[in-house]
Model the fold of this input.
Amino acid sequence: MNTPHPNHDRGLEFDLSTLLSRRRSLGVLLGAGTAAALAACTPGTAGGSASPSSTATNTASAAEGTTAAASPSATSTVTRAFAECGVEIPEETLGPYPGDGSNGPNVLEASGVVRRDIRSSFGTSTTKAEGVPLTVTLTLLDNANGCAPLAGAAVYAWHCDKDGKYSLYDSGLENENYLRGVQEADANGQLTFSTIYPGAYNGRWPHIHFEVFESMSNTTAGGQVLAVSQIALTETACKAVYASFGYESSARNFPNTTLTSDNVFGDDGGIYQLATMSGSVAGGYTAALNVTV
Done:
């Protein structure tokens, strides 16, 4: 059985010693009237409001932790009930393996890190991480500007491989940099990564790390991060993926940590970071999340 990484997710005290991040207050939104106001802030809907059916579907999916079918519209695939105006993405730890220069290697200064497909290493190695395909779409929203799309912002995303190991850090992977990459948000504040489904290791719920920067140029400027957070993957998708070939260690580790017992997502059950997901093992999965900063 895999053992947890010795320093994994030691908390903000660990991260703040090496990286200055801006923390935001998390608004508490209650009541049906507030829910209606939140739905009105969702981008990509006619007149600034979501249809009752789409809002109800997304709310139920997030509350139950189930997968939701993706809409043909790129914007509508990232519509969520919980990531809205006034509710900024919770700030989380980078973990000990960010690869952004705050704890050892800095992949952000490497040529080739700006890419959509992050499955392969780049530079001196072209090793490809194998696993069930996963497409991750984030929509960045500017809370200070009425949840307008944060066009031109950048995201650095990284996660472990199917065995729960991190490139650049774990034994035998020091010269690999797969499952790491940077993308710039388009005019709608959206960006997409093509990757594989992360594995599960003891002590953590399956997740994807990310940092948000105001611009591409700021990704290499120390202290210029807007937000540091993580994406939680749904239980339904995890169970299906971890029952497939190649994820045997994840199948053993996954039952040991629940979403509510996780030391990152457990404070609020991950509701503000739980992705909307759809797909299958055979066809691959999609994960989408609105990120309000």
